[in-house]
């Protein structure tokens, strides 16, 4: 596609439920990134993929968070047993390569609300 | 660790010039980015600095001083559509050793007639 797409655009769930967030990067981009943006806060790095492998998962806040990527395209971020503090906008970005000078292109985000 | 500071809000008049400052402290600096984010939308890339000095791109310019840990984004001939949040992001080394973007909280710019 022309840009990074994410689904769903909005998700409301109950505390304790699992959620899956999806990201479709720009075609041909080998690097994919997940960020979280809490209200009034800056974007927090969660995890990045180079191809299908995740060399850096250091930003994942707990073991309830996991992500995978298949076929060097779609990625899913899974949050298990959601908590109210997980409420945030989850942004995905992609870049041609995971190189320090490569520009990251962001998707519109998924707004997650945990009740 | 990383610490990125930028003003929370700024207001400027249409047609004027505004400067948004960003100061940072990082352990392994490797470039500074500015992004624009309209409310409810994705951040979009504005500029990238890795060497000291001024990068000019149309109405927008970005400056970097690595020794001072300081950058600014300069917006000229402000237009109403420039009302948005401006995010300063530094590429820094994470605990796992890769270089990732660390973002400031953003500066919400309001352009008034």
Describe it for me?
- The complex is a heterodimer of chains A (115) and B (113).
- By secondary structure, chain A is mainly β.
- Helix content of chain A is 0%, strand content 50%.
- In chain A, the strands form two sheets. In chain A, strands 2, 4, 5, 6, 9, 10 and 11 form a seven-stranded mixed sheet that branches.
- The mean pLDDT of chain A is 92.
- Chain B is mainly β.
- In chain B, 0% of the residues lie in helices and 58% in strands.
- Chain B has no helices and eleven strands.
- In chain B, the strands form two sheets. In chain B, strands 2, 4, 5, 9, 10 and 11 form a six-stranded mixed sheet that branches. In chain B, strands 1-3-8-7-6 form a five-stranded antiparallel sheet, with no helix packed on it.
- In chain B, a hairpin with a 4-residue loop joins strand 7 (60-65) and strand 8.
- Chain B is globular, with a radius of gyration of 14 Å.
- In chain B, 33% of the residues are buried.
- The mean pLDDT of chain B is 92.
- The chains are: A mainly beta (115), B mainly beta (113).
- Chains A and B meet through strand 5 and strand 10 of A and strand 5, strand 9 and strand 10 of B.
């Amino acid at each position: 596609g022309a840009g990074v797409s994410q689904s769903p655009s909005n998700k409301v769930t109950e505390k304790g439920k699992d959620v899956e967030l999806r990201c479709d990067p720009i075609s041909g981009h080998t690097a994919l990134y997940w960020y979280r943006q809490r209200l009034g806060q800056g974007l927090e790095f969660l995890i990045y993929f180079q191809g299908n492998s995740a060399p850096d998962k250091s930003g994942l806040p707990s073991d309830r968070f996991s992500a995978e990527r298949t076929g060097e395209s779609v990625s899913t971020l899974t949050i298990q047993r959601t908590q109210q503090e997980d409420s945030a906008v989850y942004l995905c970005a992609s870049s041609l390569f995971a190189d320090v000078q490569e520009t990251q292109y962001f998707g519109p985000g998924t707004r997650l609300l945990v009740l | 660790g990383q610490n990125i500071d930028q003003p929370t809000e700024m207001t400027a008049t249409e047609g004027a010039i505004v400067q948004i400052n960003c100061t940072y402290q990082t352990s392994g600096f490797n470039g500074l980015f500015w992004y624009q984010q309209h409310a409810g939308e994705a951040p979009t890339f504005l500029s990238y600095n890795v060497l000291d000095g001024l990068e000019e791109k149309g109405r927008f310019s970005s400056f970097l001083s690595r020794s001072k840990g300081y950058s600014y984004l300069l917006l000229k001939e402000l237009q109403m559509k420039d009302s948005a949040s401006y995010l300063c992001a530094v590429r820094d080394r994470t605990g796992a050793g890769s270089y990732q973007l660390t973002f400031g909280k953003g500066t919400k710019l309001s352009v008034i007639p």
